[in-house]
Amino acid sequence: MDMGAASAYLSPSRWSLPLIPPPSPSPPPQESIPFSRVSCCSSRLSSSAVTSGSGSSKTATLSAIQSSGIIACLRSSCAEIAFEAASAALDGGISVLEITMSTPGVFQVLKRLVEAYPAAFLGVGTVLSVADAINAMNAGARFLMSPATVKDVMNVVQGTEVLYIPGVMTPTEFCFYRYCVHTMAVLVLSR
C-alpha cells in the first residue's frame, strides 16, 4: 500500500484521521482547512455573591450572562476566521461570547470585536496567567474564565470592572472561593 495515498487530510475538526486509500487513480491532496468551533453552554450562575459594593460593570456582565442563558465559546485556528465566526454569532443574536486563549491572535481579535460590537459582553477563556489576564483586560474583555481557580489571576482582577469566573469541581473549592469571586463555573463530570 502506498503510504502517501493512505495519509490523512486535516479535517474541519482539526484532527487528522486515517483514511482508507481510494481506488486508483488517487484524487489530488486537499489543502488544510482552517477550522473554527463555536459551542454554547447554558449557565445558571448565582448572583448572590454580587454585593452592593461591586462595580456596575461586573454586575452588568453577570446580569447579561444570566439573562442570555448562554456563553458562546469560540475556538479557532486562525485569527481572521475567529473574527468572522464571532461576528456571525453576535449578528445572529449571541450577546455573551468567550474567545479561548488557544485562538491565535486572541487579544487582537477581541480588540476588533470590542470596537465593532461595543454592546456585546466579550471575554477570554482558559486564562491561566497574570500576563494573559492583563492583556485580555487591556483588549477590552468584560470577563475572564479559567478551567480552575488561578489565585494570581483572581488577585489581579479584584478591584477592576472585569468579572472573573474560575472553574471549580469539588464542594471544597466551591465553599472556599465563593467569598473571593462573584461567580464560578461549576464543572460537572459524568461517565
From TrEMBL:
Alphabetical list of InterPro entries matching this protein: Aldlse_KDPG_KHG, Aldolase_TIM
**Which GO molecular function terms does the record list?**
lyase activity
Alphabetically list the UniProt keywords.
Answer: Carbohydrate metabolism, Lyase
Pathway given in the UniProt record: Carbohydrate acid metabolism
Q: Which SUPFAM superfamilies match?
A: Aldolase
Keyword DNA-binding recorded:
no
A UniProt-annotated Pfam family: Aldolase
Q: How does it assemble?
A: Homotrimer.
Q: Which PANTHER family does the annotation name?
A: 2-DEHYDRO-3-DEOXY-6-PHOSPHOGALACTONATE ALDOLASE-RELATED, 2-KETO-3-DEOXY-6-PHOSPHOGLUCONATE ALDOLASE
Family as reported in the entry's similarity comment: Belongs to the KHG/KDPG aldolase family.
Protein name, as recorded: KHG/KDPG aldolase
Q: Which organism is it from?
A: Linum tenue
